[in-house]
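In response to the reviewer comment on reproducibility (Comment 2.3), we provide here a single inverse folding case reported in full, input and output, so that an independent group could reproduce the run without further information from us. The structure tokens appear first.
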């Protein structure tokens, strides 16, 4: 991905339907986000640069396969959001997927609703201390997302504090973003040279089973339950249960595979023991050991609220 975001003036030349566009407010591993006005409504415009492989030793058909994978991921994200209707997932906006070129580079763009609020990562860095109601509300919101995604054949794969917005809307206090690396259970794999690559992921928020070579044959919604446990833990405790900022990728992965996390109760002794047990259970290394009955999880959370 190019390090510098495209200027709004340039995007206005290539994307029709935009009334106005503000400077980029968010840059991630897969794209940029711009506040946009579309038909008088504020939305979030997502722009994704399609990476190229500039290596003459690689066959052209493999290069094309890599480009196709990236485009397919964007289309999968939009398809998933079209199918999933739960309020706790971000909604699509008025701009459908469009492709355009700037020089030799290819880009895709589409819009989503603009959510007023703050992502959990920023709140954690600000040492925000949520109360019990906020923690259980976040827990329920993420479970609803997992349930809806799974019923439509998807696994999010990237649930983390940076992808969750604490909104100003009391009817949907937490909203999950970014299905850019969502996995489609019943679709043909779109991953270029899948057997030779590590899974696309944020390594601080990667379920241990995702690190197994055959994870694509066994993955299910319990991987999202694990990352939900990580996210709820970090929001409540103010720190990740395993990873440390000083860790490199190898150390982070090693902790995820081998080191048992401390109990949430050690960081938040004020929280009900039952809630801490639920979060701790989600962080079991083996999927079979995690509490996987989502309806039962809802019932347990209801009692604690």
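Designed residues, in position order:
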């Amino acid at each position: 991905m190019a390090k510098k975001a495209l200027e709004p003036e340039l995007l206005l030349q290539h994307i029709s339907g935009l009334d106005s566009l503000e400077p980029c407010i968010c840059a991630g591993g897969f794209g940029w986000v711009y506040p946009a006005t579309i038909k008088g409504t504020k939305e979030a415009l997502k722009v994704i640069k399609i990476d190229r492989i500039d290596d003459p030793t690689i066959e052209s058909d493999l290069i094309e396969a890599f480009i196709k994978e990236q485009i397919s991921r964007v289309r999968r994200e939009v398809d998933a959001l079209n199918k999933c209707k739960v309020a706790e997932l971000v909604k699509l906006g008025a701009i459908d997927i469009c492709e355009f070129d700037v020089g030799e580079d290819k880009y895709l763009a589409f819009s989503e609703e603009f959510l007023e609020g703050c992502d959990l990562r920023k709140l954690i860095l600000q040492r925000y201390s949520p109360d019990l109601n906020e923690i259980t509300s976040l827990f329920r919101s993420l479970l609803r997302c997992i349930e809806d995604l799974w019923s439509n054949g998807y696994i999010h794969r990237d649930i983390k504090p940076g992808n969750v917005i604490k909104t100003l809307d009391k009817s949907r206090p937490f909203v999950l973003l970014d299905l850019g690396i969502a996995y489609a259970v019943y679709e043909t794999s779109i991953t270029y040279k899948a057997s030779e690559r590590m899974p696309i992921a944020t390594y601080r928020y990667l379920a241990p089973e995702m690190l197994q070579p055959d994870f694509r044959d066994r993955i299910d919604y319990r991987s999202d339950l694990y990352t939900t446990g990580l996210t709820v833990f970090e929001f409540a405790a103010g720190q990740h249960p395993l990873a440390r900022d000083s860790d490199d990728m190898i150390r982070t992965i090693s902790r995820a595979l081998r080191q048992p996390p401390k109990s949430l109760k050690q960081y938040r002794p004020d929280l009900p023991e039952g809630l801490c047990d639920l979060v701790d259970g989600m962080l079991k290394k083996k999927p079979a050991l995690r509490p996987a009955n989502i309806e039962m999880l809802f019932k347990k959370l209801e009692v604690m609220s």
